[in-house]
Amino acid sequence: MNSKKVFLDTNVIIDFIEHSRAKHDIAVRLFEYLSVNSYQICISEDMLSTIFYVAKDKNVVLKFFTVIQKKWDITHYGKETIDTAIDISMKMSLDFEDVLQCVCAKNNNCDTLITNDKYFFDCGIKILSAEDFLSPTIK
Fold it and tell me: Is residue 139 part of a domain?
């Protein structure tokens, strides 16, 4: 049975927070779907500072953080995850942040990583865009 645990990439969260972004509406639909269907949502703790830095309305972001801390898994990397991501990134000349997020998702037993990046490192878990995740053919 599907444990229904997803890892959200930073860009999906920023799409949700920032109304002006092109993928805002799909991010809103994604968050509604995940909530209604009782998905366990996972992100890494380093994403909080990135989201805060990028987002325009800092107060909205802080309120958002208050809500997600109560409902989401906010994970840490730890040395093993970081070492693995460094090794993979160096050997394969890959984007370190993407590799780090994927390894973190896999190490935290997420079924799916949802990102709006077109090319994302495949660490052995399902990687989908928000649109593909919501697509009826995926369900």
Answer: no
